[in-house]
Amino acid sequence: MFHRVAQQDAATAHNITGIMSKSRKKTPIGTYYCPSQKRGKQFCNRKFRHRERILLCKDRPLDLPLRTREVTNPWDLGGDGKTFWGFHPKEDWYQKFMRK
User: Can you name the residues that pair with 29 across neighbouring β-strands?
Assistant: First the structure.
């Protein structure tokens, strides 16, 4: 405890690196943001209606999909989520990205 207080006293407004942590992320996983899911939903509904139209023309009403989830995966739509950026330890952007 005393050592930490001594470091804080020694740090000035220009030299705050004496008390900052040097921890890094262990895995290069970051979040991404998609402002809207509109295009994904449009594609999903088009695919759903197309599948319905084809099955009705083939006279197979029992095979009709009941929900859009039966045609497309909702996790494939745009949205908030995480992504793996890969390991690139010699790149400058990677070192900046791995800071906490």
Answer: 84
Q: What is the phi-psi region of residue 39: left when phi exceeds 0, alpha when psi lies from -120 to 50, beta otherwise?
A: alpha
Q: What does the alpha-carbon distance between residue 12 and residue 9 come to, in Å, rounded to a whole number?
A: 8
Q: Rounded distance, CA 98 to CA 25, Å?
A: 5
What pLDDT is attached to residue 4?
Answer: 53
* Positions of the chain with pLDDT under 70: 1-21, 31, 80, 100
Whole-number pLDDT of residue 46:
95
The 3-class secondary structure across the chain, one letter per residue, is: CHHHHHHHHHCCCCCCCCCCCCCECCCCEEEECCCCCHHHHHHHHHHHHHHHHHHHHCCCHHHCCCCHHHCCCHHHCCCCEEEECCCCCCCHHHHHHCEC
Length in residues, the chain? 100
Residue 24's DSSP bridge partners are: 99
